């Protein structure tokens, strides 16, 4: 009984504690993962950051597409699951247990997120300040307020920071 209580407390702290810093855990579905990778439009060897990588499903899909990916995850249980799940792709995938707002993001060509609308303005500012441009921000479900996406597919939105000569059609 004590163990059950302790396990419940750990789950509440891990999943509930994240709400103080960002979006709760909800996984992106396979069609949206596919759309996100299409919108990111990266070549094998290029790098994508995932802000809040959850259980690592997007990291796996990106690694299978030949990308290098760095996933940040605040929830230690999910960070462990993502780390374990991506061991097969350890040369391409790095999972960082921590707060992506506080992290100094490494050089990357794209960022994928599935957050909440209330964080999109802050994210927009962080992307605008990011020194390595062009940067493609791919956001599932939530748009940057006051900004028109460069493209959108299946509820996934693309924003481009800096000059990017590629174009995509909106569906
Ligand atoms: C809506 S879920 C999306 C999970 C995953 N990106 C996906 O699409 O399947 C948001 C994730 O971000 C994590 N998260 C929220 N705020 C965070 C922060 N400040 N730093 C790192 N991870 C965070 C949550 O724990 C959760 O796993």
Helical proportion? Answer: 25-40%
DSSP strand tally: 7
How are strands sequenced across the largest beta sheet? 3-2-1-4-5-7-6
- How much of the sequence is in beta strands? 15-25%
Number of helices: 5
Poorly predicted sequence stretches spanning 5 or more consecutive residues: none
Structural class: alpha/beta
Largest sheet: 7 strands, mixed
Rounded Rg: 16 Å
Distinct ligands: S-adenosylmethionine
Summed over residues and divided by their number, the pLDDT gives a mean of: 92
Order of secondary-structure elements: HHEHEHEEHEEE
Terminal Cα separation, in Å? Answer: 53 Å
> What general outline do the C-alpha atoms trace?
globular
Topology record:
Blueprint: H1 2-17, H2 30-40, E1 47-51, H3 57-64, E2 68-73, H4 76-85, E3 93-97, E4 110-113, H5 120-129, E5 135-140, E6 151-153, E7 156-161
Parallel strand pairs: 1-2, 1-4, 2-3, 4-5
Antiparallel strand pairs: 5-7, 6-7
Bound molecules: S-adenosylmethionine.
How would you describe what is shown here?
With 171 residues, the chain is of the alpha/beta class. It is 32% helix and 20% strand. Strands 3-2-1-4-5-7-6 form a 7-stranded mixed β-sheet. It is globular. The N and C termini lie far apart (53 Å). The structure holds S-adenosylmethionine. S-adenosylmethionine (SAM) binds at residues 18, 21-23, 25-28, 50, 52-54, 57-58, 72-75, 78, 99-101, 114.
Main attributes of the structure:
171 residues, alpha/beta, 20% strand, seven-stranded mixed sheet, binds S-adenosylmethionine
